[in-house]
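Q: Hi! First time doing this. I have a protein sequence and I read that you can turn it into a structure. Is that right? Here it is:
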Amino acid sequence: MNLIVAIGGLAFLILIHEAGHFVVARAVSMRPRKFYLFFPPALFKWHRGGIEYGIGSIPLGGYVKIPGMHRPAARDADAHFSSTLEEAPWVRPEFNRVRRALDEQDFDEARAGLPELESALRRSELSEQARRASQRGLVEIEDALSGDAYWRAPAWKRISVILAGPAANFLFAIVVLAIVFALGVPAGATRAVERVTGGSPAASIGLAPGDVIVAVNGQATPQFGDISDRIRASQGDPITLTVERDGQETTLGPVSAELIDGRYRIGFVPAPFDKSYAPGAAIAKAFEETGQATATIFRSLGGIVTGSTRDDVSSAVGIVDQSSQILDAGFRYYLGVLALISLSLALLNLLPLLPLDGGHIAFSIAEKIRGRAIPRETYERFSMVGIALVLVLFFIGLSNDIDRLRGG
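A: Yes, that's right. Below is the predicted 3D structure, encoded as structure tokens:
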């Protein structure tokens, strides 16, 4: 059950990320054509309001298809219709009209030629593969030529649409952390015993969960710090514990503490006490925690380059596994971790690498500064570099996760 909840939580973070793109795209009159959780091919899909919604079969993310992410070019037509022209060369006049118009960037002429090309294709006998490719080509070129195409929009609209995905994850992190702080977070340890380590000195004298330690060696312990200090000060000499159990005081021991990690311990975990925050203070605390986590994440990203934090990288496999384990500690703890995962997703997507959101934002800003579009070839070269870096990061994380799952 924990695994299902952990997978569902990660899927939800992807969903709200894509929903951010989707909602803002519609708000600025840039109607999305598709909205998918995970990548196609589709397991389920349905149409509503001219938009295709679906759940993909490749659980590596999600996507919103926004029309015309790039200015259409003649080679787009070549790529989509090459197999069609081999099987039906008689459609070449209609195809050449569209291709020539795209090459000359006469987009009105290209759009005017699409109905004739579509009619010629309907009259042709094509293989299923060629027909699917030609239909996809018609849709892609028509979307790229549409008035609500992404590339036609002013820079502020394009940046708003792309920034909305990470912003949705950032907002989710703030809201969830504020809820966690309002519900209460561990703020210290009590004198009550929450868990006893098996085979420990504490277990050997019968210390049990629920016991409240009121004295060590007969000396009262008003706070947990007093208990810890006196156990450490014993230096391994025998001590006794006075505990309150079922309303009565009982003395346990004597027992000798063991030196573990440089401290004398007897092997129990104290029950924490929670501190709840008022709504305003919870929101302020959420922003504070988010700021600290952001600084930590960026330091970790820098450490990947130097190698100092490379072993800390996780893929979706490790994130799900660790999230499912945290659920055992309580749903509140899981919510806190889910918020930090959402923040990480936002920050990683803001890296200035194509095809990440940050890369599209950086290119939109660059186009605004230079006053003209950046060539398509430049986009593609940067995308290849970005994809390679993202894949390297993914495989480092996956390798780490496999080692952890194997106990390495």
